[in-house]
Amino acid sequence: MAAQLQTRAFTSAQGVAAPRRQLRVSAVAEVERAVSQAQRRGVPEGTPVVPVRDLPSRPRRNRKSETVRRAFSETYLDPANFILPVFVHDGEENIPIDSMPGVARLGWRHGLLDAVKEARSVGVNQVVIFPKTPEHLKTPTAEEAFNPNGLAQRTISLLKDTFPDLEVYTDVALDPYNSDGHDGIVSDEGVILNDETIEYLCRQAVSQARAGADCVSPSDMMDGRVSAIREALDSEGFTNVSIMAYTAKYASAFYGPFRDALASAPKPGQAHRRIPPNKKTYQQDPANYREALREAILDEQEGADIMMVKPGLPYLDVIRLLRDNSPLPIAAYHVSGEYAMLKAAAERGWLNEKDAVLEALLCLKRAGSDLILTYYATEAAKWMAADKPSWR
Ligand code: PBG
User: Where is this region: Disordered (predicted)?
Assistant: First the structure.
């Protein structure tokens, strides 16, 4: 439509030889009258003289200055919407993650606190914790997930002791603790066991709540886990601990750098023990849209407080679907692969990083998400703080 209009305008402005001469001869007086001096001032020589188009609607009027653009803006980003995902390990130094330049596995005692302090100083007061479990603590049944002295639990307590008003989210899934690299317990036949896994997810969620978590986030995609976790939390007295359900979590290639960060990718199987090489029997098929609604209806009935779509940008339609069909807050996870793509292009000078990142985050918001989990949270908040309008 826009292209069509432009083509028409172009054709009549430039014209083909004959009609153009006709226009010049017959309409010259009208043109002189119609084209205001102001519009003609400063136009480059050679600019065609044309009659004013009779356009009742000129949408460009609403974009004509920074003031009106700000006044009519439909969507705003606020650092208060951001959740910063943080990787921690049981050591002191910060270890850079190769596939995520600028992101590190933080030493849980110091590096983490510095990162959180920095995030809070620019208005980001929500974090989600991802612990890197040492290989020797991983087992097929992932009991380390609910060790009261585990890295995740210690990290949660330290954060809440240091920053009592920080909103601390946790990940509920077995993959960082599972020697097979799956979110659930794997049988010898290579089946990810649903109901058995839920039992351990409940223990994991309760242990995180005991450590002080404000919101637990099941990312495992087992059926029925939200209601089971709700019940487990309530029966232990944690009625105030929220649940952010990974409602529409897709079996996506964009999680690659995250699995590098935690060394949590599915492991190769053996002759007597088949381990599925991907998570397609529990995470959603990227081809599917209606299925997200089915998951959303269930998560809502089961008591989720927030529903998440993951990844973010490739799934804007799914964010919109959930936004239009549920009153719950919607979160979008701008995942590790999305971060890596932007970083890689920016490092090569192929994209303006700040503009591209802020646009990506704004689009997640415009699609209907209230919350955005992004590794860019702190950086974006800094850019936003520096982005004063020109009249101030
Ligand atoms: C674990 C989990 C994953 C992510 C968040 N929680 C990886 C996976 O499901 O394989 C991915 C986050 C990212 O890529 O940034 N269940």
Answer: 37-66
